[in-house]
Amino acid sequence: MDDPFVACPYNFAHRVPRSRIQAHIVKCQPNYPELDICPYNATHRVPKLEIRSHVLNCPSKNAIFPQDKPPKLKGSLTTPKPILQKDYLPETDPNHEIWDD
């Protein structure tokens, strides 16, 4: 069973395959009182009084904002020494070509 059944947020007696829950919510929504939509997962519908606690504890929040943040890299960048015209000698450069001969 690759597609588990989940309960409709409007009527828990409605059991729908997870892949079809969004379509079911759109169909079921006009028949029930308005619920707030979770900002982390649109299939989460919660009563207005409970939305604040749901947002703080939403299981989908960790998928978007993982608690294990990668460590910040520390290092120092230095600017390379510029090559000045007086320091550049064409005859010492192995890639220098002479076209005048």
Automatic annotation (TrEMBL):
Keyword Chloroplast attached: no
CHHC U11-48K-type domain mapped to chain residues: 5-32, 35-62
InterPro entries with a match to the protein in the record: TRM13/UPF0224_CHHC_Znf_dom, UPF0224_FAM112_RNA_Proc, Znf_C2H2_sf
Domain of life: Eukaryota
Keyword Zinc annotated: yes
UniProt-annotated stretches for the region Disordered: 67-101
GO molecular function term, any single one: zinc ion binding
One Pfam match: zf-U11-48K
PROSITE patterns documented for this protein: ZF_CHHC_U11_48K
Record key words, sorted: Metal-binding, Zinc, Zinc-finger
Protein name (database record): CHHC U11-48K-type domain-containing protein
Species the sequence originates in: Parnassius mnemosyne
Upper taxonomic lineage: Eukaryota, Metazoa, Ecdysozoa, Arthropoda, Hexapoda
